[in-house]
């Protein structure tokens, strides 16, 4: 089959490499020309490129199955895989840039895969059937168009798909650092690095490749003083004010500016109409073009690769019927991806309410993060919440733990916030620091 993939982000490249391996003739079009040697890569079209990423274990499993060379190259580049005692991959620790560079490198050497630099202006149709794309006015015909154009992509929106959307309720600032050879990073409390739930906000330090790491502070965006965190001196004063996090800055050199972000949405886009007919036969969206979830949970690439694997398998078993595959894939996404979107919508809304001072609400179904947290008081929940955390089960598998988790909260137990300023104190610190007043340490 001749296939055009729009977008050379993680989803587009993974999908294209996997399809080319199965003998399809694949062209990937992206407006970004890709990196040139080791020169800095000013990535176009992906605002989160230099923002903190950690990749969950299923990303490693997907790469190991489909593109094992990529895992080897990532390790050569200094990425590490954190694994559980039983060998299950928990996380791939590397910067997003390193991750994408490696995928690009594999794609460039893949027989049957052509990379084209250009902007896809739109889909060419015969009637309503997609039969290719227009790149700078030039026609690129195809039996199947795959839309991997990401959260900001416009391709699938041409179909008039009525997507679902709800705010993530997260404003954040992030910065990457490097420690010199041999220097230790700061204290960790999990395989990805350090994750702290403070009063009214979160702070994390993600370990990356080759001595690099990133620190991110995330809040609800309601306190305007926290916008000052985008200024480097304010940001570093805030990081130092969180005792265990401040230790990460010892010996570390920043390698990016402080990068702010906000107004992200959880989104889900079906690809069939109310009667189950494809919105545009011959066009299939995958990855962020189908579903985005709050970055706080670091699930995006896992959900994207899961979709890509499912789609590739469906196309392999029905190579002559991409239109039927589009319908089958939408049904699969409805069953396996939409639940994660709904999980985030419920969890994000409740987190914002609690960040604003609300208590655990036992009148409603507990959101997944509270079921997971309850394992801190009732160890018998641990095995099942671990399966959810590793994304080995769907969120609905936590439903059977609802009663036991509620019992924990009915005793009055609550997860203890990590030591550090409350959100109001952090806001005060930002305001003081921005006006040059001494900041209490
Ligand atoms: C702040 C932030 C932090 C995140 N952190 C994590 C994390 O820790 N872990 C995790 O797993 N996920 C994380 N995610 C989600 C993750 O970044 C996405 O899931 C991932 O980028 C999806 O990849 P994609 O290939 O589908 O889309 P993208 O990465 O957006 O790639 C789309 C590509 O399509 C190209 N394109 C778009 N339109 C056109 C066009 N018309 N013509 C040509 N090219 C086009 C773009 O240039 C781009 O290269 C985070 C997201 C955000 C916003």
Automatic annotation (TrEMBL):
Residue span, FAD dependent oxidoreductase domain: 3-51
Domain of life: Bacteria
Classification via Pfam families: DAO, Trp_halogenase
InterPro entries: FAD-dep_OxRdtase, FAD/NAD-bd_sf, Flavin-dep_Halogenase_NPB, Flavin_halogenase
An example Gene Ontology molecular-function term: monooxygenase activity
Membership in a protein family: Belongs to the flavin-dependent halogenase family. Bacterial tryptophan halogenase subfamily.
Protein name: FAD-dependent oxidoreductase
